[in-house]
Design brief:
alpha/beta, single chain, globular, 2 domains
């Protein structure tokens, strides 16, 4: 009865006290769109891109499962350059050199290493309805956190973080990456919550599954209306509809 009263008053049910969200592909346009735009703009041979991604993680990506997402989803072991980058075990420059050496343009030319990651994600666009969803959840009394596997970390809109999040966890800054159990525990601890008190939103299935295995309530994001409906039902609050 108390939960129903809280929901009616515009507050989330007592069992759920926090929302943890991924960044790329959840609070932005799909990563596949940004990577495809980069491949097209630089006329990079898509087969060379796919080959290096398959070699660096399991399962290998396609154009619908781009480098960033595949890095988060893969399980290629500790020697994966993607995992090393995400944990902060190699520098951006080192990773860019490794990746550029494996790529070629459609006319057989080399791909410039310097600034490669910035160019790869240049077409990233913030998803304003998803940002507002986080704002509404926070105003309703929930603790909020961003949990992101980073490919560099310099392009986050950090000026927005104070209004959106109580906590930000960026993989390279903490030496952990999704779907490792410890990074979920770390984020919940920073929020002052138990994992079971948190909802986790991510666009990658393996991350969602890992969160669920730890006891978080997980929502796999694909489109705003579905995520807003699921989250609204879980939290017992009214969330804005996409205009």
């Amino acid at each position: 009865m108390a939960c129903q009263e809280g929901a009616a008053a515009g507050r989330p049910p007592a069992a759920i006290r926090g929302v943890i969200t991924d960044f790329g592909g959840v609070l932005t346009n799909p990563i596949s769109a940004t990577v495809t735009a980069w491949l097209d703009a630089e006329r990079i041979d898509k087969a060379s891109y796919q080959a290096v991604m398959r070699a660096w993680m399991t399962p290998g990506p396609s154009l619908d499962s781009p480098a960033s997402s595949a890095g988060r989803a893969g399980a290629a072991g500790d020697h994966s350059p993607v995992h090393a980058l995400e944990r902060g075990e190699c520098t951006v420059a080192e990773f860019e050199a490794l990746l550029a050496a494996e790529l070629v343009t459609v006319d057989g030319q080399p791909v410039a290493a310097e600034g490669l990651l910035a160019r790869m994600f240049a077409a990233t666009v913030l998803d304003e309805p998803m940002l507002e969803l986080i704002r509404v959840a926070r105003r309703a009394g929930l603790r909020t956190a961003m949990l992101s596997n980073s490919w560099g970390g310099s392009d986050y809109p950090r000026e927005l973080f104070p209004e959106l999040f109580d906590v930000t966890v960026i993989s390279a800054e903490v030496g952990m990456r999704k779907p490792e159990e410890r990074i979920f525990r770390h984020t919940a601890t920073l929020l002052g919550l138990e994992p079971a008190e948190c909802v986790f939103i991510d666009d990658i299935a393996v991350n969602v599954q890992a969160a669920e295995a730890l006891g978080l309530v997980a929502v796999q994001h694909s489109a705003y209306p579905d995520t807003a409906a699921r989250l609204g039902a879980l939290l017992g609050i009214s969330l804005p509809q996409r205009s």
